[in-house]
Every structure is written in structure tokens, then in C-alpha cells.
Design a protein that fits this description.
porphyrin biosynthesis; single chain; lyase; 8 strands; iron; heme biosynthesis; alpha/beta; Rossmann fold; 38% helix
Length: 396
């Protein structure tokens, strides 16, 4: 298959495991979801998120209340600014001369504008880092589509080459911050229970991630593979949770579970369950007195964390009398930032890191998505960074 408009074979330089040969890149693009930065931004932002679905503003306003509770400001943009600065500092520390640009899918700065900025600055081959660690349509394929659409929209298809680092759910840089957080969370919950005169009361560890439609979960990852939990998305979370627990001696013997949050969409469409609040309500009946909530599906403390976990889930814990602690997300933790730069170096000729560490048997994940991996659910769209790419990727 030849990539349209480029004259290049997308299989060239890619081995049977989807690993791409190192290249010389001249910029990094930090790609993220984006979020509103004021009350007047909230509904336009939500229209961008739900574009093509025909959702009326009245229904969007129901979700808007979460953002309005925080002044209409999502924390994600500030967190991405901090992550961009941390990446720049780590690159500078290593003497790696790669500028970091930043673009969002749903709010300014938009990916298309970032690509224009990159091209106007003389960059012709960029490597994207996304703020999504797992495999599914919205976490991986949709980024690839947005990159492809942005290249078409800007007229840069065939002029600007865009690749993407692998999904990093089990990279040590993503896992280790959670290891620290779980150890500290267990200590905090046990201390709270001891203060209440319950030093030996049972504690539960709940790993939380974004729920997605079951159909999207089943479409995630290469076909023809039997995954634990029925999909790559679920299997990656289960394996990563176990990798975290294996590194926390204090967690030995503690029961744990994978739960979901932030469900949206039509009620007749089945999504991954159980919901975290439903799962929390079952704990007291099992004799559990404390819970450590681990936002395993999230890179930073954006709205799904500060609302769904810090607000709703912790309110549920308080109502149930559960001692509770929410573990930090990786954010700008030094190990996470170092891990992201390591994954950049996996792909570069200069400063190359040949070893690709993974804490689970599922990884290291592919650099290049295989055909029919996380299949498009809304019709054919231009994509990049995959063997089914349909826009030009050859720098000119």
C-alpha cells in the first residue's frame, strides 16, 4: 500500500512488530485534548468535542456544569504548559536540540495551527507525543486522524511528515509515579483508619480509567488476539495495574479492582462497567473501611479527575464513611518526563535508545499502528503514523 500523495511505502523502515527505524526529526509536538479557559469558552469547546454527533446545546450544558464549577477553566491547558516546559528542560539537560511545540484537538492552540507554525519555522519532520497512554479509538486512532485531517486542512500533506511515539501504558516512566502514589496512598489511608481506632481494617485499591463504549473497546488493538477482559484497552489497564502492585510491597494481599468513570453518550449504548461510584457503594458490605483511588487511565489532573474523582467519587466515599485517598497522576513527575524523552530517543538517530522497556508482557507497544487497529468508527478519514495511513507523509 502506498501512502497517497507521498510516493512512499509506509511499510518501509517498519519491522514485523510495528517498530519504525530511527529517523532524524527536527521538532516534537505535544498533542493533547485541550480544554476551555473561561466561561465563554465552555459551550464552544464542548461543541468541538462532540462535533458530528448532533448533540444540542441544552445537553452540552449538563456537562458544562462541571467546567463552570471551576470558573469555566479546565486544568488541562495549564498542565500541558507545565509539561511542555518540563520536556524542554529535560531535553536541554541531555543536550538534545529538539524544540517542543504544543497543539490540541479541541481547543486553542489547535493542532492545525501548530503544524502551520512548525512548517513556517522550517520543520519538515515532527514526532508527536500524545497525552493518552492506552489503545482505543479516542486515545490513539483519533489523534492519528486529527493529525491527518490537519495536514489536509493546512495543505501540508506531503510536505510535513508526522510520526507518533508508541502508546506508553506500561513504560516505566508512566508506571513508576503510580507506584510511589499507591505506596503513599496506602500509608495515608491506613494512618487515617488507625486514628479512628481501626488499624487493621481492610483497605481496597481501585484503579480508575475512562469508560468507553464496549464496541470501541473490542475494536482496540490488532485483531485476532485474545485479550484479558475482552479487549486491548481493558487488558492494558489490568496488566499495568498489576505492574504497579508488583512494585508496592505494602500492597501485598490487598484486594483491588479496575473501575470506570466519565461515561457519556446515549444510554442504550453499552459502556465498560462498573462505574466507580457503584463499585464504591459495594465496599462497606464487604467489610472494607478504606480505599485508595488510582487514576490509572490519566496522565494529568484534568476535568475527569478533579470532577469525577476528586468531587463525585470522594463525596461518595465520605457518604459511605470510607477513608479515602486519591493518588496523583504522573503530571510532571521527573520519571514521567524522563520516560517521554526516552521514547523520543527510541525514535531518533541522534541520542538513540535502542532498548524499549515495558513493565507488562503486552509491551512494548507498536510505533506504527497495524491495519484495522482501533478501527475508525465514523467513516474513512486521513490518518498518519499507521500502515493504513491515507495522507502524504514525505517531507519535501
Amino acid at each position: 500500500m502506498t501512502t497517497a500523495g507521498s510516493g512512499l511505502d509506509p511499510l518501509a523502515g517498519v519491522d514485523e512488530n510495528g517498530r519504525m527505524a530511527p529517523k532524524r526529526y527536527d521538532a516534537i509536538v505535544l498533542a493533547s485534548f485541550g480544554g476551555p479557559e473561561g466561561q465563554e469558552d465552555v459551550i464552544p469547546f464542548l461543541r468541538n468535542v462532540t462535533r458530528g454527533r448532533g448533540i444540542p446545546d441544552e445537553r452540552l450544558e449538563e456537562v458544562a456544569t462541571h467546567y463552570r464549577s471551576f470558573g469555566g477553566i479546565s486544568p488541562i491547558n495549564a498542565q500541558n504548559r507545565a509539561l511542555k516546559q518540563a520536556l524542554e528542560a529535560e531535553l536541554d539537560r541531555r543536550g538534545i536540540d529538539l524544540p517542543v511545540l504544543w497543539g490540541n484537538r479541541n481547543w486553542a492552540p489547535f493542532i492545525a495551527d501548530t503544524f502551520r507554525e512548525a512548517y513556517d519555522a522550517g520543520h519538515r519532520r515532527v514526532l508527536a507525543l500524545s497525552t493518552s497512554a492506552y489503545s482505543c479509538y479516542s486515545s490513539c486512532r483519533q489523534y492519528r486522524e486529527d493529525f491527518g485531517m490537519a495536514l489536509v486542512e493546512t495543505g501540508l500533506a506531503g510536505k510535513l511528515e508526522v510520526d507518533k511515539v508508541r502508546q506508553y501504558f506500561d513504560h516505566p516512566g508512566f508506571v513508576e509515579p503510580f507506584v510511589e502514589g499507591v505506596a503513599e496512598g496506602l500509608a495515608a489511608v491506613r494512618a487515617e483508619l488507625a486514628a479512628k481506632g481501626e488499624p487493621d481494617a481492610p483497605v481496597h485499591i481501585m484503579f480508575a480509567t475512562h469508560s468507553i463504549p464496549i464496541g470501541d473497546a473490542e475494536a482496540a488493538g490488532p485483531r485476532g488476539v485474545e485479550y484479558e477482559g475482552g479487549s486491548a484497552y481493558v487488558a492494558q489497564h489490568l496488566a499495568t495495574a498489576q505492574a504497579v502492585l508488583d512494585r508496592v510491597p505494602e500492597a501485598a494481599g490487598v484486594e483491588w479492582s479496575l473501575v470506570y468513570q466519565s461515561r457519556s453518550g446515549a444510554p442504550h449504548v453499552p459502556w465498560l462497567e462498573p462505574d466507580i461510584n457503584d463499585a464504591l457503594e459495594e465496599l462497606p458490605g464487604k467489610g472494607i473501611r478504606g480505599v485508595v483511588i488510582v487514576p490509572l487511565g490519566f496522565v494529568s489532573d484534568h476535568m475527569e479527575v478533579v470532577w469525577d474523582l476528586d468531587t463525585e467519587a470522594l463525596q461518595t466515599c465520605a457518604a459511605l464513611g470510607l477513608a479515602a485517598k486519591r493518588v496523583p497522576t504522573p503530571g510532571v513527575h521527573a520519571k514521567f518526563v524522563e520516560g517521554l524523552v526516552d521514547m523520543v530517543c527510541e525514535r531518533t538517530v541522534e541520542n538513540n535508545i535502542a532498548e524499549r522497556p515495558a513493565t507488562t508482557s503486552l509491551g512494548p507497544w507498536m510505533d506504527v499502528c497495524m491495519p484495522n487497529c482501533c478501527a475508525n468508527r465514523r467513516g474513512e478519514k486521513p490518518t498518519v503514523a499507521g500502515m493504513d495511513s491515507t495522507v502524504g507523509t514525505g517531507a519535501q
